[in-house]
Amino acid sequence: MTLTSSGTSVRLGGRLVVDDVDLAVAPGTVTALIGPNGAGKSSLIRVLAGINRPDAGRITYEDRDWSSIPRKERARIVSLVEQDATTELSLPVRDVVALGRTPYATLLSGESSADETAITSALSAAGVSAFATRDFSTLSGGERQRVQLARALAQEPCLLLLDEPTNHLDVSAQLSTLALLRSLAASGMGILTALHDLNLAASFADTIVVLSAGRVVAAGPPTAVLTADTIGSVYGVTATVLEHPVTGKPLIAFS
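Below the sequence we write its predicted C-alpha cells.
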C-alpha cells in the first residue's frame, strides 16, 4: 500500500523548507531522497512519518488522509529511523528494540510470543544481537544507529522511512544496512531513505528523488537522474558519471 505526498509544502520559522513536493513510497521499492544540506529531506520525511503536518498539500495512504488515521494505526503502517540516535536511554539494547512493539500493546498486556519473535528477528536483522544486554547509553554512534533500525523493524511496518541510516557507520556496516533495505523491499516493504552518498544511492535505489531548496528537481531511475548536469546544478560541483564495471549502475567521480 502506497503513502503519497501531493503538493506538500512545509514552513519552519516562516521559511519554506519543502515546496510543492509530489512523491510516493510504494511497496517493494527503495526510493532514495538526495540533495544538499538544507534541501528539505528531513522535514519531508518527518511529515511523511506523521510527526509534523504539512502547511499545504496532502499526505494520503491508500486514499485515506494520513492525519485522520489514528496514531497507533499509523505506527503499524510506517516506522521511522531518524538521523541521529542521541537519546541517552539507560536501558538494555533489547528493551530499546522492544519499544518498537508499543503500537501492538494493550493496557494490561505483557510481552507476547509475537513480540518476542519480532524483537529477536529485528535484533538479528540489524546485526545487534551480540550486544542485546548492553546499556544503550554506552554504545557508539554507529551501534546506536543500528539499534534504532532494529527498533523500527520490531514495529513490523509496511513502510520504512529512514533519515541518513548510514550516518556514523563504517563502510561494511553501510553496505550491510543498505543490503538489508533491499532485502526488505524484496519482501514487499516500501522504503524511503535520505542519503548523502550519491554512489550508495545509485547502487541500492530503484528511484532517486533530488531535492534542492525544498523542491523536486529530478526524479526517476538512477541512470536518468544522476547526470553530471543535475549533480553540478544541485551540488555546485564538477562530476563525471561513469558506468560501474560490475553492476552497470552510475558511478560518480568528483573533481
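The first strand starts at residue 3 and ends at 12.
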